[in-house]
Design goal:
The complex is a heterodimer of chains A (about 260) and B (about 70). In chain A, about 20% of the residues lie in helices and about 30% in strands. The model of chain A has no long low-confidence stretch (mean pLDDT about 95). With about 70 residues, chain B is of the alpha+beta class. In chain B, strands 1-2 form a two-stranded antiparallel ribbon. The longest helix of chain B is centred in the first third of the chain and has 14 residues. The C terminus of chain B is likely disordered. The chains are: A alpha+beta (about 260), B alpha+beta (about 70).
Chain lengths: ~260, ~70
């Protein structure tokens, strides 16, 4: 199951709250990148961009989250919609620009007085057998339930609605987006400092190396091993991995976020 | 069950990696896009939309509750 970041709203009372759809969406992408072990925030991202308070673009937000949280996003401009969808199902979250007027008249509308361009974070898609359609899990920073009729938090939008809104940004129907890394494949981030690489899947085994904090490492299928406690959580699953040229085993907990999700 | 015309769950990952490696992947834009500033004033004056007046929940019966998503 794909990790669900915590929802963040842009209307947080900060100086640039209503211009912070970009920093808020990218903050949720940071959460996805770190599977909850680190969470971005719109205010630090806005302060890193250091412009008060125009709307923000991919280049600014990507640079900010890389500097603040070591989250490397992949920017893509003028991409076909189909390529964007390929990226989403490839285990990545995505911040994408939409034209908000397209959302009006739907129950997903979180601001009926806004027609312009807007960043949202999209976590994943699913097939809804009941409705017979694909749906995408959209984290709209405006969906804060500030009035009873405004949606609250992430919503499963019809995929076709997001497509229409994203393709309405440019006359040529290409879309602009940034992607997180693939958190679903076999490359995972070392989420905590102090990790050890061991010869065998037990803490009693010799240490053959260290797990660099924040590094992205290949990991193989987990195996049962000796007990460990990492970040206050116990476990006994281990994964084969490699640091540089040295192979060994790492406790799975070094790659598990606070919810237990692997990233 | 899924749409038989959509092969992304099987082939999307490989196709996206190919896209990233292709010349079609643009990592920069001459004129970076900016998100506009939302105008949030006036929402309250508009009052609830028709579907909300009818007592329906947002949106299409799907509501997010914490980290789980349930149909109402």
């Amino acid at each position: 199951m794909t990790y669900h970041p915590a929802y963040q709203k842009q209307g947080d009372g900060s100086q640039c709250q209503w211009q912070n759809c970009g920093p808020t969406s990218f903050a949720m992408a940071v959460d996805r990148d770190w599977v909850g072990a680190r969470k971005g925030g719109p205010v630090p991202i806005r302060n890193k961009i250091a412009l008060y308070c125009p709307g923000t673009n991919s280049t600014q937000n990507n640079a900010a989250v890389k500097a603040l949280y070591a989250t490397a996003m992949t920017a893509a401009f003028d991409m076909p919609w189909g390529s964007w969808l390929d990226g989403l199902v490839a285990g990545r979250g995505s911040c994408i620009v939409i034209r908000y007027s397209v959302v009006h008249g739907t129950p997903y509308d979180a601001c009926r007085t806004f027609d312009g361009l807007h960043w949202v974070y999209v976590n994943e898609r699913r097939w809804n057998a009941t409705t017979g359609r694909y749906e995408v899990l959209v984290y709209d920073p405006l969906a804060d339930h500030r009035y009873s009729w405004i949606p609250q938090g992430p919503q499963w939008w019809p995929q076709s609605l997001l497509q229409s809104a994203a393709q309405a940004v440019q006359a040529d129907h290409y879309v602009d987006a940034s992607f997180t890394r693939d958190t679903v494949g076999s490359i995972h981030r070392v989420l905590y400092a102090g990790g050890a690489l061991r010869a065998k899947p037990t803490v009693a085994s010799a240490q053959v190396g260290s797990l660099p904090f924040g590094a992205l490492l290949w990991t193989g299928p987990s195996v049962a091993g000796g007990a460990w406690t990492i970040n206050g959580k116990p476990g006994s699953r281990w994964v084969p991995t490699k640091v540089g040229t040295v192979s060994g085993y790492a406790a799975l907990g070094w790659f598990q976020g606070p919810t237990g999700a692997i990233g | 069950m899924s749409d038989p015309q959509d092969d992304r769950d099987q082939n999307g990952r490989a196709r996206f990696e190919a896209f990233l490696a292709s010349p079609a992947h643009k990592t920069k834009k001459d004129k970076p896009e900016h998100a506009d500033d939302p105008v949030v004033d006036g929402e309250e004056a508009l009052g609830p939309p028709d579907w909300a007046k009818q007592g329906r929940n947002a949106p299409h019966g799907w509501k997010a509750v914490g980290d789980t998503f349930t149909e109402e």
